[in-house]
Amino acid sequence: LVARAIAGEAGVPFFSISGSEFVEMFVGVGAARVRDLFEQARKAAPCIIFIDELDALGKKRGAGAFGGGH
Fold first, then answer.
1. Hey, which bits of the chain come out as E strands?
2. Rounded to 5 degrees, what angle do the CA atoms 33, 46, 16 make?
3. Cβ-proximal residues to 41 (8 Å cutoff; 6+ apart), any chain
4. What is the pLDDT of residues 3-28, one digit of tens each?
5. pTM greater than the 0.85 cutoff
6. Rounded to whole angstroms, how far apart are CA atoms 36 and 65?
7. Which of 5, 6, 7, 53 is the most exposed place for a label (fewest CB within 10 A)?
8. Ramachandran assignment for 48, one of left (phi > 0), alpha (psi -120 to 50 degrees), beta (any other)
9. How many helices (H) and strands (E) does the chain have?
10. 23 touches 56 (CB < 8 A)
11. Model pLDDT for residues 36-56, shown as the tens digit of each residue
């Protein structure tokens, strides 16, 4: 990962999370993970946070592979 290399070169902590971890089966679990990550990052600041699969967050609920919906 380029982001990890940049953090290494800058000498700062690196935090990573997948966008799919934001979307959980149980309401609030994904949000709690994100809050925890940012709380850890604030304590370790300055640092780099990398969010992989960010596009997973932008999908509409119930939209199929072909767009669906209105």
1. 14-18, 48-52
2. 35
3. 13, 15, 47, 49
4. 999 999 999 999 998 887 777 667 77
5. no
6. 31
7. 5
8. beta
9. 2, 2
10. yes
11. 999 999 999 999 999 898 876
